[in-house]
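Shift notes (night). Ran Iron ABC transporter permease while the centrifuge was going.
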Amino acid sequence: MTRRFTALAALAVVCAAVEVVAGRGMSPVDVWDVLNGGGDATERHIVFQLRLPRLLVALGAGACLAVAGLVLQSALRNPLAGPEVTGVTPGAVLGAVTATALGLAGWDSPLAVVLAACAGGCAGAALLWLLAGRRHGDPAQTAVHGVLVSAVLGGFTAMVLLVEPGELGSVVQWLVGTTEGRVWEHWHLLWPWALLWLAAAWLLAGPLTLLRCGDDIALAAGLSVRRARSLALLCAVALTAGAVAAVGALGFVGLLVPHLAVAVFGADLRRSLPGAALTGAVVVCGADAAAQLSSRLLATALDSGRLTLPVGALTACLGAALLLLVVRRTPSRTF
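Came back to this:
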């Protein structure tokens, strides 16, 4: 197990190094020169004020989404549950887009956007809680109501776009997910929130393990099933809201990375939860590096200097293919 964590940590370092040098505007040699104390003021600004915070935000958001997905899949005993099942992802998108359309937030004010996204994500989770009523602990009912809430909030986002068509760029960025334009303020807002709720998720490893065994076994072991599941859902909502507020709605990360983490680190959540955090960080960081490299290649091939491939588009394409594979291999799997 130690070797697996070490290998994954080494892979994270490799992905981080590739992402730092993958962007346009500077060659890898120039980046290395800046890291060694050289380079001019513009090059140092690009590396230290743009690329490094973007890298850290990608790592943090990936860790949050992966752990949120594993917590949800364990609490709901559903291998196809993801952060979207809580309604918090579309709620966070709606909050950020609405605040931008009303002029209350903008991409030049990260704090306002983050607060708006968190408020929207919490509102989406609250709406799910109200719809679930007395059946908060029913995994099937929670999942069904989560899908309905997500659909409703997605419709409201479309209505905002119709009212304010000038916000198309903001809608696309939040719906697809991107790390473009992330600065140190985004990171300073993300890491305390992520650290708090990642620690909370790890502390819930024992109750989550019992929930995965079924409600009857959990009750026989003396666990308050409804309270434990409520705390787990709260933790997943908070992690998802923080990630979406930072990078938008990255698709399939919270759905598929938990499967990979469990396959590598086993079913013991004391290991697989930290493993999921590290795996999610590697996946998002690697996808962002691949997106930047693809953007450079496409820009050269199409002679378009402004062409940018968002990381969310890449995770959506790869995630859809992997999801089909998971469904075909485990069509009726439950924990």
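The chain has a mean pLDDT of 83. The CA atoms of residues 160 and 174 lie 13 Å apart.
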